[in-house]
Write the structure tokens for this entry.
Amino acid sequence: MKQYILQRLLAMVITLFIILTLGFLMIRMMPGSIFDDYQDLPADMEAVLNAKYNFDKPVIVQYFIYLKNILLHWDWGISLKMYPNKSVWSVVRGKIPVTLYVNIFSLLISLPLGMLAGISAAIKKNGSVDYLVSFLVVIFISVPSFVFATCLQYFIAYKAGLFPIIYDANAVGAAKFHSLVLPILALAFSPIARVARYLRAELAENINSEFMLLARTKGLTYTQATLRHGIRNSLVPLANIIIPMFTTIMGGSLVVENIFAIPGMGGLMIQSINTSDHQVTLATLMFYSLISVLTILIVDLSYGIIDPRIRIGGQQKV
Amino acid sequence: MKIYNKEEYAGIDTSKLRLIQMDESLHDQKFETKPIGFFKDAMLRFKKNKASVVAFVMICIIAFFAIFGPMMNDYGFNDQDLNRINMPPKIPAIAKFNIGIFDGGRVLANRRVVNLSDTSQYPEGCILAVENRHFVNNIEMCDVTVDYYRYSGISDEDCFWFGTDYLGRDLWTRLWRGARVSLLIALVSVTVNVVIGVTYGSVAGYYGGRLDLIMMRITEIINAFPNIVVMTIFILIFGTGIFSIILALVVRDWIGTARLIRGQFYRFKNDEYVLAAKTLGVPDRTLIFRHILPNSIGPIITRTALAVPAAIFSESFLAYIGLGLKPPEPSIGILLSDGQKVLLYFPTQVLFPAILISVLCISFNMFGNGLRDAFDPTQRGV
Amino acid sequence: MKKVLAILLVSLMVISLFAGCGKKEVDITPSAPPAEPAKPAETTQPAANTPAVPSEPTAPAEPEKPKPEGEGVMNIAATGDVATLNPQTYSMARDSDAIDRLSMTLYETVIGEDGNFKYQPEFAADFPKQMDDTRTVWQIPIRKGLKWDNGDEMTAEDALYTYKMLLDPVLLNSRASAFANNYIVVKNATEYNAGKCDWEDVGWKMVDDYTIELTVDNAVTDDEILSHFNNAALALVNKTVYEASLNTDRTTCMYGTSKDTIVSCGPYTLKDWIEGASISYQKNPDYVFADNIWINTINERTISDASTRLQLFLNGELDYVSLGDEEYLQYKEDPRVIESNATSMRHISVNMCNTEKAILTSTNFRLALYYGSNRAEMASMCNGYACWWYQPLMVIGNLETGECYHEMFCEAHPDWVPANDGYDPEKAKAYFEKALEETGTTKVDLTLLYNSDTAMYKSCSEYLQKTWAELFGTDRFHIDLQGMSNSQMVATKKDYKNNVNSYEMSWGAWNTSKLAPWNAYTVWRTDYGKKNEPLSLPELDDLWQRANQGEERFDKAKRLEMAYQMEKVMLDNAGVVPIIECPAHYLKADRVVLPTEDNRYVVGAGFGWNYARIVE
């Protein structure tokens, strides 16, 4: 097991490395020069500027300089257009906490609610609860999160006045959570639906299996058998879904952050692409990649913990 | 099958129990029923599930309208008329009932009361109701409900069943034409996704070890790039157009299927029948596709069924960021993104595409559920 | 199933029963306004309360003055957050608003007593003095007794240090040319920036602690100097904090990147700054014109979603919001709406250097497009103004009277004004035929790029796509539309310098000088440094040269006439195809009273939010 973990960690580092390289090359190839905004730049000034920021050197050399700066000084470069002269790391660092706050709470809320919905739908399969849950599931998955966000904001915050209309950056503790309830909810609907759907499907399939029959014949009631034996088996594909869902939630939080005026990571990527601020784009890309790769690693490791049948990355026996 | 516990068994009238088949011998007796193949069996089970049948019918209805809808009225999909922009929907048959929907009425908010009697602004007979009178800076304002068709000076014969958009184009025609394009894009991209995903996942899952490691790392690398970056670059290189949109939708979506299949393979590849087949010398390819893969038909079908509306949403995402089909060609995604901008002011422009997508979503979901239950090998004969 | 049907039928019948009692008489008579509650004076008494101005003849002597610390809080919203407060590196318009609040420039534009804008010496004590007949040496006196927020005294040394750093050859600030080469060309400034000479050679010297001498390359007028220094990029920076914010090898400066690295000397001081979320200002009681500032605190929050802003406004948490197109339709008749001029003229430019499609090189083709565009219809669709001219309406032609340049043009040369807003289908078809003949093309098949960030571009593009095709013949004329984000579109257009075929047709909008129309035509010149499109009209270049650098420009009437000539050159050649101007609309709360009595937008000075009053 330990060897497997080490192997995967090494693979993760290599993956991140490749992503960084590919990202660097791709972004350099995008059209547009950073100095398009500079007022009336004479040609020789442009040469001097390029020399200052190392743009005149070949791409490979630039890449190595970039790499060296990250590894030795943790210097991700300086933002040239979005926040002129600020270091990219300080820009990104300021925005990560609130985004993580919203996303993690979303995930945490969606798990118990989704599991509850899925289990109750699967137990009374094809009953009225099942139809209701299925219907709601489809609605929650198909309607994009920003529609929920807009409706929540309009009806609950504006008309009813129960929660603040936008996020209050000065608040701490309970007041901060109070102003973030609506965005957390808006982002949680889709994960709740997904969790419910998969759990229902898996549980419904498992209820027909033989070990459940055995549990019933041993004398357990329907509920006991489901809770003790059925659910454990259904959790296997669930881990595969829950943790990558974190990445999906992050991706979807862009519009929600916009609507509730949350200064988070969401808009940073798109804004940096639009303003051709390459350093920021790369740093944001690495952040998302890190989260994505980490979640996949956790999922694969969790396979081994949850399901005893799958302990290791599967070498072929025989 | 019901399992009786002690109390329930005690309450049964045991005189009604009778032993069957004790004196006769069964062997060599002819079967009285015909054998049914796998697919026929599945169809029977499918038909029993009412919800799935209804869903299937809905899908057929939508497909029918997608093909014949635009021809049902006289408006073309690109007939612009700047005097008829943003009209509300009006269906004469329903308008007669006077229930307040589909009658071409609209509430104009924040209008000055003094202007209401001016017939150049509010033609004769178009004002239906005046509400919410209040004063702002000593000027009286109100919300006035008008018959928008009379207000714009359109005769009573012309009506737009679903209203018009920001250029005065009929939304009914655009919606069904868009449904055509969207369904086409969705079906093609989903098929390609599933084929690639299943093959990739099964190969990675079956062989395991080093091959699996490398293949999964490749998917991680592709997955790590956020959607928008990949799609932007794709479209920058290949331009827009149906083909490149399908490609852009395919480039990342197969990864989820592949990982799912790989997970399923890990569950089933060490079962005894696989070992038995291997001992018999069955080649790898047959093992993968004929023996192990059918266990995963359930998740595959569920995934495929919900992937169709998801593909339509992805295409709508492309339309949001301006990379969708070239105007003036509509698609459901483009209609959604155009309508979303005016969600709070002309809600019907987003309502109809949204209802269509939701119905498609629900139908495909139910249909997929039904198919999955029908094709589940563990339920054969039940 | 049958039960469900039955229930459905019954409910339908019930509903129709109720609906039947629909038609009642609608009452549209206006009602009497409510009795006036005892409110403090609204916008109806302008003169007596206009700050720092002697009152009307009938009113008593002493005008009303604001309290030293101001009164009231104004809450506003910005569409994006303030990126930096360093005047030497900023690029966003909202940053310049923030810089204007926190710092001073030598000269600024304010709203004068007559409601027009006027130049006012801010850090300077008086207008520049011409020192010799060549008009190349000027002296600028500096005010005495001013202080920075941290106690540092302000002298001419501040002006010197600020511009020395702005032009620093190692820092290479993006705004360096705002000082070196804008309305005036400061002697050796560009050379110093390129590292080719010393600071002592630059034409910006201290004569004594409160006087500065300016030397320029060519003869200039005094209003050119005023326009040059009325630029947020030339705002002053504090030497102590600036030096402390430089890194060890002096290649980057962190001035203005956070709350601790900025010092104020302007109308407001920085009270708080949470990056990405909000920024707040407080009245600076030591500001030289503190008597014009009435508000105590301005809170600005970053809210990018338009409907969120509107909801906050309706809830009373914001004092003014900008209205998008659809929202404007809802509030068109609301008395709280105020309008500001469009900042630019939106047009379609044609890549005349394109080698693949010969039709694009033809002037007749552009003229055909010009006369074939029905601007009035597009304007009514987008709530804008049909625009057939080349300088937007906000450009001022006469600095003394504040008259609009475009109206002056129409008055001076009525025979140059095209009929029907420049829409003439017959003429268009004639030009089109000529264009086809001269280039030997039978079918026109082009791609038009549009900005997908703003809805108006898409709708106008689709409209033109259809109407042009109908006008010229659908078999001979076809356009494809391609949407992209704004920066991508600009980058693609600019790429024509490397790849002549980078684009075929594209939308564009230039934002140029509002106070000097003869200068504003610079964007259409062949040699313009920031050119986006390959337009070359030698007549225009010649006229511009004479109007801005030649001797004739000292005769203001002649200069204006040359501007009119430049407009005619553009009209005759259809350099680009102007389509529409889209003004901006705002909703303003009643508790905020603007310095102009009718809530007018004063070109050059804006609405004057910094000088507003809170009336509860």
Summary: Chain C has 18 helices and 25 strands. The CA atoms of residues 115 and 464 of chain C lie 40 Å apart.
